[in-house]
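Task 17 of the worksheet. Students: predict the tertiary structure of the chain below and write it out as structure tokens. Keep your answer in the requested format; marks are given for formatting as well as content.
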Amino acid sequence: PADDINLLGRLNSQTGRLLNAIRQYRLANPYLKESIRIDSIKKDTFALAFNNQLLSSNYVDIKMYDSASYFINKAVNYSKFLTAVDKADINIYKGAVEYRKGNLANAAKIIFSNMNSASKTFRWLAQKYACDIYYNERKYDSVYYYARQLCNAPIHQNQKSGYTYLFKPQVKKYLPIDSIETFFEKYSNLVENYLNRYDAESTLWQNT
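Model answer:
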């Protein structure tokens, strides 16, 4: 019955996503694959796009890049049925997979052509890869441009990436002299807040 298939699909998808959230990527993959199989039966192109993308990201995390490429290509194929923003997000992740595989030119082409159409979350991801790509190409002024944007992102990890690049010797020279101290203070506060949060979480775990 259709209700049973829908329930089974949701259970597999939710289990896969839960295991993904706790970084049990290898355990998550069979559930995601079963969810994708059910999505195919239902012809649910929305779920097929996002579940294939998530499965691809799992394979990236366990460094199986050929498998990651296979599933992100499937996600891109299904993304033609999505909104322009969702389609751009999935394409940016394809660019990230290409980067991990060492295909820097192709990665850059995909990432830069989709960056402005993506959601904020994936725009920050694109900016992070832009820093990586331009740093490898020794285009340090462009690294500076994207690193500055990452420093203003509201997510800690993005800020950390931005400051890390901003204070590299080849990039730091682009900082205005009168702003170096301000940026260093902001970075110090970022690190201190992270360490305080880590200590608080460690204490909480120890007391449970």
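Marker's comment: The radius of gyration is 20 Å. Residues 200-208 have pLDDT under 50 and may be disordered.
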